[in-house]
Amino acid sequence: MSRRVCVIGAGASGLTTIKGCLEEGLEPTCFESSDDIGGLWRFKETPEPGRASIYRSLVVNTSKEMMCFSDFPMPPEYPNYMTHSQLLQYFRLYAQHFDLLRHIIFRTSVQSVRQQPDFSHSGQWEVVTKHRDGREDTHIFDGVLVCSGHFTHPFLPLAQFPGHESFPGRCLHSWEYKDAEAFRGKRVVVIGIGNSGGDIAVEISRAAEKTFLSTREGSWVAARMSSNGLPLDMKVLTRFVAVLPRWLLNWLAHRTLNKRFDHRLYGLQPSDRSMDQRLLINDDLPGRILQGGIVMKPNLTEFKGSGLQFQDGTIEEDIDAVIFCTGYRSNFPFLPQSLWSGPEGELTLYRRVFPPSLECPTLAVIGMFQSKGPIFPGMEMQVRWAARVMG
Questions:
Q1: Residues of the chain above pLDDT 90, percent
Q2: CATH 3.50.50.60 given to domain 158-324
């Protein structure tokens, strides 16, 4: 008799998890709270609380050759760097090819995941689900794989900045941002220089009166296109690069990136010169700075009426909107509180997959890691391991 496992979420990690479980002889049942697959990569005009949300112009930062699943190449007619809609279509093709949809129960959210009384012996879990019509069901599973992602609960650190209560403009998180039309003719400050911050600042700068990009630490910036016109990740994610000494890799990277433009002159030089931090992948940011469309600013310190003061003492007046591209908090409210630890309630995971405190390794979290390259192959490897352990 095959072991029954619960898969939570039918996004990218959920789909490859269903497939990985089937390959190990497990019987997966996937619960998806929305009415479709795709998770993060499903664009919706209006953000919905508790769900991931992306902006209209989003283009992936890793090439199709590097990011595709190992046994299902991207269609040849797809561009090297895809829009979110093209990536969603790829997931549909993947789900159809491997017949995954029949294992998914849509419009059903997971309310709780609790250990059975005999968990130390059986490793089983009680999973309570709630259908959109309000009906609740209780299931018993031999394993649980959490694939609900970590881009659903935005981190908006307004409390860190004195005076924000009296700011007459609009403060929002990048989770709410869809396009630049609402900021046409405005004076806008973007906080944070991750990939979302770079994308949003560039897009808004083409519509706004003035755009400021505030960064605490700076960032190394690379374009999607590398030498000879090849995608960046095809050039740098190689076995040769992986074996280079760290000091040599840093030297080569600094030399290459500063050859395109001097990060210090552009106000982008990171305080930490190592390459341990993630690259900002952006084709247009240096050009927008050069043209004056974006003005770089140091870290925000406080609000002063309609103005914002920055770490260097400068104040920008008459700001209409502040967009916080400050990341997300991991949130799995259905998991037992005993799995959360640390002063900020962090979910501790062995090898970023298994909670080490469990007596039986029958619960795994898939996709909870950051990668310097494409994340999908990494999730696929996590699933192979987790499914093998649970099988």
A1: 85
A2: yes
